[in-house]
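Dear Dr. K.,

Following up on our conversation at the group meeting, I've run the structure prediction for MFS transporter from Streptomyces parvulus. I'm pasting the input sequence below exactly as I used it, so you can double-check it against your construct before we proceed with anything downstream. Let me know if the numbering doesn't match what you have in your notebook.
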Amino acid sequence: MSVPAPASPGAAPPGQPRKAATAAWIGSALEYYDFFIYGSAAALIFPDVFFDESDPATATLLSLATFGVAYAARPVGAFFLGHVGDRMGRKKIMVFTLILMGVSTFLIGCLPTRDQVGTLAPVLLVLCRILQGISAAGEQASANSMTLEHAPGHRRGFFTSFTLSGTQGGQLLATLVFLPVAALPEEHLLSWGWRVPFWLSVVVAVVGYVIRRRLDETPAFERAAATGGVVKMPLAVLARDHWADVLRVVAGALVASVSTIFTVWALAYATSDSVGMSRTAMLWVGALANVVALGAIPLWASLSDRIGRRPVFLIGAAGSAVAMFLYLWAVSTGSYPLTFLLGIVAFGVVYSAANGVWPAFYGEMFSTRVRLSGVAIGTQIGFAVAGFAVTFAARIAGPDGDDWFAVALFTAALCVPPVIAALTARETHKVPTEELGIRAGGRAAEPETATA
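The predicted structure tokens came back this morning:
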């Protein structure tokens, strides 16, 4: 009877790519449930709970600004978590970010209101929001690196897309949780009802911890660790060999402005006095768009495995610039059928092309040694701009908050850098995983077995 040869360092057990993708999907869904319930609350609840009700326009602006605060914290978290993830492994970061998000979100549900403690209330809200941002900084980059490095070379687009379809799943779950909350009588909604979705983050933290603790480290990282290929200073290697691709990722990540404008500003605009659509109906727009996105994201990603990352990303970035004009116009008419239809097309279908392919597109720009750092830093700087795009949109919309055309034009302008980034990037969908990132920044990067 023959004895199987021992596995080589970093060899992937059978079924591990699917297990990694599933863990990334579930973990991202649970993590971004926490993140997106804040967006819904910032648009619908927090102006009345944490800010001065005597000036509704300013209260809404300040509430939306707290949504952007987490995005400002994300680049800081990306530098730290990216360094740790490339030094110590993807799994540790995935577990840490999930716990931090769950705890900080639960604490938001426990905060006192402005009526109870005055200006201390929004200060505490901002502190919790910063913790959420630090957590989110490492979540997607670690999940993307985990799935990409486990995936078969010819299906990296499909497997890495599970991270983003998980994000959409979390957004869908957050919307569904907020539907019955938003339907509560005003008195109950503003006193205790808004807190319930945040308290549920305890379940998020426990379930996510169990799932991710059982996940194996990636073969690529284990191979690098076994051969001395883990660098001591990933950020130094990143700056030296991959700076051009970091800039491309920053520019590409600005496409996330489409998501923040759709999920936060458009929700606040549609339910404002100038349009007068119901909270429940607009939450259903987001829910249905995310249902469609759950199917569209892996389809777009699979297409990128066949025709390349760049053309699919370009469809999503350029198409979103046009689709947002149509969606915000539909909202301005107050027509529910038009808003539902164009919301699903804009966010569920068109935006999903860029959203579904960027995990592979960005991750393939870097070698294993600096992949988590490169994706984390690049995306989080771009996402910081996207987060504050909501605040800028609220200002651009004018004193009455109803200049939707200016907001659509602003969103379209933010889609231009992603288009440029895609046009100047290398096509990598056919490059073997072990050769990714070998040439970067105009020079040959060091082999992955070298120590910096």
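Two things stood out to me. The first strand starts at residue 439 and ends at 440. The longest helix spans residues 56-88.

Best regards,
J.T.
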